[in-house]
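# nightly structure sweep
# worker-07 picked up a monomer target from the shared queue
# config: single-sequence mode, recycle default, output format = structure tokens
# input follows
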Amino acid sequence: MQLARAAAVLAAAALALTLAACTGAGDSPAAVPTQTAWTEQPSGSATPGSGATRYDASASAAANKAAFDAAIRGILARDAHAKGASVVAALKSAGFPMAATQVTPDTTSAKLQPGSISVGVKIGESCLVGQWGAAVDGYQSTVAPVLRSGGCLIGGIPAVG
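# output follows
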């Protein structure tokens, strides 16, 4: 129990440090994630017929959010603790470009399970960002501006493809 609590505290501290790094000199205030930026939709919103279920290369990130959410929620419905590779595979199956996809590691540098895992897909000048895990109480996603680094996730995380 103490190990799980320590892991949660470590994950929260790492997230706080990561978010603090977003506020460096010259960064656009729009690139700083906020608590209100996340939108959680009921699981019924990701069912077939409720929006696109495949990536549309000619559409915006906002227009592709339903397909992004459907792919990720499909995996999480089968395994609430899904690893990043499973989520990336689901996004690939839905047609999302792997060269524009980033995912955070499944373990911390101390070999602990992180409080959450994030995946981002850059589409034009916007990013679809999804996050799941105990620290975020399930799955949440948002459309956010591309970071100054040119990616969607903080920390120099390389693209999957």
